Amino acid sequence: MILLGRSISKIQPVIDEIATISPTTKSYFVPLDLASFSSVHAAAATIRTLTSTIDILLNNAGIMALPRYQTSPAGHELQFATNHLGHFLLTSLLSPLLVSGSRIVNVSSAGHALGEVRFEDWNFNGGKDYEAWQAYGQGKAANVLFSKALATKLQPKGVLAFSLHPGNIAGTGLADNLENTDWQAVLSLFTELGLSSLQLTILTQLSNASKIR
Length: 213
What we know:
By secondary structure, the chain is of the alpha/beta class. It contains 6 helices and 5 strands. It has 2 domains: 135 residues, NAD(P)-binding Rossmann-like Domain (Rossmann fold); 43 residues. It has a 3-stranded parallel beta sheet with strand order 3-4-5, covered by helices on one side. Strands 1-2 form a two-stranded parallel sheet. Strand 1, helix 1 and strand 2 form a beta-alpha-beta unit.
């Protein structure tokens, strides 16, 4: 099993738990910063030295609703870069290792409805029109579109691709930067968009879960 992350300190508890559950399973840590294309290239190169095939590629890293506009080293809005572009590049670089029966899982969110992919202006007019939840929605919507495209293009190879809403995010740290007012804002956005009561219920559960520290 190959685990990617920005620091070994975040991954080591997972490696230790895997060793406890399955002592015969070997786990490898590969450093990766999804916002950096050079880091993605380096990680993919390392992975190719560790394995010749990939059974399951799980793209699940992400950041959410950054309060101020930030960009990646390449100049892309940071949520879009981290939540989509980094995963897109990593998957593309590792695609030769996918075989018939391999699966790609891109973790999206019910928040994909908050913002479509701004194909002509993904950087929000250089940050002048930046809105945190729309930026988050853009990346999550891109995850869904990416999965649909992968499912079509890789079908002849026997590779399956999926996107999903992860459910409860308590304990992940994803929402550590958010306050009650931030959740009130996103719930108001969902209401304005006319989304179903089920989606509102999901977002309410997530907001409540994120407050459990």
